[in-house]
Structure formats: structure tokens, C-alpha cells
Amino acid sequence: PGGKRWLVWLKLDCGNGRAGIRPTDPEALALARAIAQGSPELVTLVGVYAHCGNTYGCRDIPAIQAIARDTTAAVLEFVTA
């Protein structure tokens, strides 16, 4: 509808393989920039997120923590870039 503003989150796939764009994909930054700069009067890129669904197969807490650390590092590296 006219006058509607869209708030957009960009999903990063940090190993789950289900949805989102890999933060290391050469097109990922271009996509984020296109969302942020394409139509600022209509669309606002408010952030990025990732879901650690790849922890579901983990058998212990250290394995879950390792995936969480890797995901956090990947997201921070992406938003810093």
C-alpha cells in the first residue's frame, strides 16, 4: 500500500544451510547495500540475523558453544565489512 515503510532484516546463513545468504558470498554485501540504498524512503535495512539451526545435531554443550562462536564471528565480520 502507498505510504507503507518496510523494515527489513537480512538473514545470514552461517552453516545451517536452510535459508539466508552466506556472509562470505561475494553477493552478500552487494545485497545488503542494495536493500539499504535502493529506496530509503520505502525500505530500511534494520539489521542482520542468523539462526544456529546447525546446533540441533550437537551432542554436547562445547559443540553448541563452538557453533555459536563461529556464527557470532561471521555475523560481526559481515556487519563490520
The major beta sheet can be summarized as: 2 strands, parallel
Task: Report the count of strand segments.
Answer: 2
Percent strand equals 15-25%
On the 0 to 100 scale, the average pLDDT is 92
Overall body shape:
elongated
Number of helices: 2
Count of separate structural domains: 1
How would you spell out the order of helices and strands? EHEH
Q: What spatial order of strands do you see in the largest sheet?
A: 1-2
* Low-confidence sequence ranges: none
In whole angstroms, the N-to-C terminal distance is 34 Å
* Radius of gyration using CA atoms only: 15 Å
Helical content class:
40-55%
Structural class category = alpha+beta
Pfam family, one: Ala_racemase_N
Domain Alanine racemase N-terminal: 4-55
GO molecular function: D-serine ammonia-lyase activity
Organism: Machaerirhynchus nigripectus
Polypeptide structure, described:
One of its GO terms (molecular function) is D-serine ammonia-lyase activity. InterPro entries: Ala_racemase_N (IPR001608), D-amino_acid_metab_enzyme (IPR051466), PLP-binding_barrel (IPR029066). Helices cover 41% and strands 16% of the residues. It is an alpha+beta fold. The protein has one domain (6-80). A two-stranded parallel sheet has the order 1-2. The model has no long low-confidence stretch (mean pLDDT 92).
Jot down its keywords:
81 residues; alpha+beta
Write the layout of secondary structure elements.
Elements: E1 6-11, H1 26-38, E2 43-49, H2 61-80
Parallel strand pairs: 1-2
